[in-house]
Task: inverse folding
């Protein structure tokens, strides 16, 4: 059975075990992917990265920070890749450390598309995107802030190689690095999301126009990655109403419902949807529809929800059958032992936003666990 045990209105809560595809979770408290910009030489994970993830091994599942699938995929300084041997060796050490600490870990695979800069591209080339439409705003290049450049629209003939990069990184993740699977990053305005949403996809070939055509890139990636490592080790993240990275769509509810229905045929390990709770910075904007409930009603596999959940909100969402599991971003960043804190109703450490991106151990591996506080 590759489908999860879905919960529809039961007495389950965050501490009820759950199976996501091939992965058995002791609890439903997922660590959301968090870019921390602390990879080492050649964008390979380091011993410090391994320590950080191992500290968080009590999560039901760790989803790692977004990880490049090829050398055109990067958009921020010091984010890890999974397309060279050195990077694969770095991830192997991360997987071993998390497994030794009793955890489970999948890596999030991304291509940033237009959310990049020639400084990150081979030979200083323009970033790649479905269409030559620049994001409004600025990005941090490591040498200060720069306006987003106008990307180069991909030729149709270039797309199959990008699809293969996702599958190749998935193989490296599972067969070479020993990670438990991958999460395809279809959210937050990066390349796959740029194809999915009609603000950023103005193509006239088979990858643009109708929602089926805009979803073709994603579907081909899922086809290739599930073929490469097995559908029960592949998850997908979407953010249908997210505005981050200057994103919008003319009909998020209709379009993403169509996408979610099409996902059923893959039997993925899970679908992970960002839709912030009321008041959260990732909540749908004023007047925008909420889509998570609609996706739940058409998508047959396991659903993880994310965006500003407290322990009580998460337990309620699971009990009501709105989701099978909940992921936590900032709470996990600042609380390596989040499940124990939830179980004991203990206070949470506050995250320090000044140390989110870049730097070393400070604000990364030095958040205290309860035991340390008590000692
Ligand atoms: C520092 C930081 C880095 C993030 N990096 C990623 C990322 O690499 N991939 C991703 O899909 N989301 C990323 N996110 C979004 C989080 O996964 C999550 O959706 C967001 O923090 C909302 O969940 P929360 O309210 O539980 O924190 C990041 C968020 C933060 C704060």
Result:
């Amino acid at each position: 059975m590759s489908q999860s045990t879905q919960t529809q209105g039961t007495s389950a809560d965050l501490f009820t075990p759950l199976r996501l595809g091939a992965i058995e979770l002791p609890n439903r408290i997922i660590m959301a992917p968090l870019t921390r910009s602390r990879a080492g030489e050649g964008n390979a994970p380091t011993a410090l990265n391994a320590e950080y993830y191992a500290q968080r091994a009590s999560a039901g599942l760790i989803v790692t920070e977004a990880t490049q699938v090829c050398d055109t995929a990067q958009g921020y300084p010091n984010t890890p890749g999974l397309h060279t041997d050195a990077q694969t060796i770095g991830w192997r050490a991360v997987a071993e450390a998390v497994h030794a600490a009793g955890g489970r870990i999948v890596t999030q695979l991304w291509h940033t598309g237009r959310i990049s800069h020639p400084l990150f591209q081979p030979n200083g080339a323009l970033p790649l995107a479905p269409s030559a439409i620049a994001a409004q705003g600025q990005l941090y290049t490591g040498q200060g802030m720069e306006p987003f450049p106008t990307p180069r629209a991909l030729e149709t003939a270039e797309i199959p190689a990008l699809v293969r990069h996702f599958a190749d990184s998935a193989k490296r993740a599972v067969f070479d690095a020993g990670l438990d699977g991958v999460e395809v990053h279809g959210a937050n305005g990066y390349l796959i999301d740029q194809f999915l949403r009609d603000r950023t996809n103005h193509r006239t070939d088979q990858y643009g126009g109708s929602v089926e055509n805009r979803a073709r890139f994603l579907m081909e990636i899922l086809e290739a990655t599930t073929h490469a490592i097995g559908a029960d080790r592949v998850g997908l993240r979407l953010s249908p109403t997210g505005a981050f990275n200057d994103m919008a769509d003319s009909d998020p509810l209709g379009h993403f419902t169509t996408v979610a229905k099409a996902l059923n045929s893959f039997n993925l390990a899970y679908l992970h949807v960002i839709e912030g709770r009321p008041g959260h910075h990732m909540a749908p904007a004023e007047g925008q529809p909420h889509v998570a409930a609609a996706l739940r009603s058409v998508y047959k596999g396991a659903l993880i929800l994310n965006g500003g959940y407290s322990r009580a909100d998460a337990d309620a969402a699971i009990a009501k059958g709105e989701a099978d599991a909940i992921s936590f971003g900032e709470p996990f960043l600042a609380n390596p032992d989040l499940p124990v804190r939830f179980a004991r109703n203990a206070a949470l450490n506050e995250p320090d936003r000044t140390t989110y991106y870049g730097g070393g151990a400070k604000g990364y591996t030095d958040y205290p666990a309860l035991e340390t506080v008590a000692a």
About this structure: The first helix runs from residue 47 to 55. The chain has a mean pLDDT of 96.
